[in-house]
Design brief:
Blueprint: E1 3-7, E2 10-13, E3 18-25, E4 33-39, E5 46-51, E6 58-60, E7 68-73, E8 78-83, E9 92-99, E10 113-114, E11 118-123
């Protein structure tokens, strides 16, 4: 079993930055592909970013490319999402996810474990 705990969300203004963290426990963190997803009210959960176990490969949704950066620290069992130039449309609950396999990281169904989410609200 793997537990994922997100933190770092909050209420910010448009143009501000936030850094989300996700701490994993229960299994060898360095084995996982880690991803961030988000879900806005009334919308489906969508892919935001992902990173391979080594950190060498990263993937981003078009909507966040150039503004968000995913990174990981395997020694701390933590994955981060740095979010710059935030927009009101970035408002959502952000979820951390982990997968042991090598499935396409942009798909919800590829992930085996999920955190509870952290709210990010961006005011205009």
């Amino acid at each position: 079993q793997v537990q994922l705990v997100e933190s770092g969300g909050g209420l910010v203004q448009a143009g501000d930055s936030l850094r989300l963290s996700c701490v994993a426990s229960g299994r060898t963190f360095s084995s996982f592909i880690m991803g961030w997803f988000r879900q806005a009210p009334g919308k489906e959960r969508e892919f935001v970013a992902a990173i391979t176990w080594s950190g060498r490969s990263t993937y981003y949704a078009d909507a966040v490319k150039g503004r968000f950066t995913i990174s990981r620290d395997n020694a701390k069992n933590t994955v981060y999402l740095r979010m710059n130039s935030l927009k009101p449309e970035d408002t959502a609950v952000y979820y951390c996810a982990a997968q042991l396999s090598s499935k396409w990281p942009g798909e919800l169904e590829s992930y085996d474990y999920w955190g509870q989410g952290t709210q990010v609200t961006v005011s205009s």
